[in-house]
Design goal:
Layout (H helix, E strand, L loop, with lengths): L1 H13 L4 H19 L3 H20 L8 H6 L1 H7 L4 H30 L4 H28 L7 H8 L4 H15 L6 H30 L1
Helix pairs in contact: 1-6, 2-3, 2-6, 3-6, 3-7, 3-9, 6-7, 6-10, 7-8, 7-9, 7-10, 9-10
Length: 219
Amino acid sequence: MTALFLRDLKLSIRAGGGALIGVLFFLTVVAVIPFGVGPDLKLLSRIGPAIVWIGALLAALLGLDRLFQAERDDGSLDLMLMQETPLVLTVLVKCLAHWTATSLPLVIASPLLGLFMNMDETAIGATMLTLLVGSPAITFIGAVGAAVAVALPRGGLLVSILVLPLTIPVLIFGVSATYAAVEDPAPFLPPFLILIALTLFFAVIGPAAAALALRNTAD
């Protein structure tokens, strides 16, 4: 499993630019917003956490279609289906490697982009923490879409269409927890715990559903 994690980590970084493409797209989305809403610093500070979360969500969707594509192209997907190691565990390791290579850099870059949106230290810290906790759920959900679309020649757009509606609860509670940390009357812990619960839920459901979709694709 360690060898598989390291292999997928290298493939995720090399394929299509990996983390660099995601961070650049993240930067582009967040940097364009001030030009659209104007130079109102108070407005930017108020909508900043939501914009950073939306930018991270869209950037995380970029490479999901490549999650199983390399194995499909070189024929190793059939070996994955026939090996003794449970396919669910293999998919889980691949998801963790993909998250480390593509989504973790977005979490690290979020404080810098928070400064672009005139966010204070509390908002930046809360946004980074919620992204760290909630972004794995996006990868686990995306694994299902990637497994469904792996047999299609150009399934990248289909993966985004399938995954985006399912990630809305993660986005809602991630943004809610961030705003709760900034606004004193609002409790931070309830939405943050729900965000953790969503990640744990999809960590169980996502790899299992993706493994089932891969087996049906092979059949």
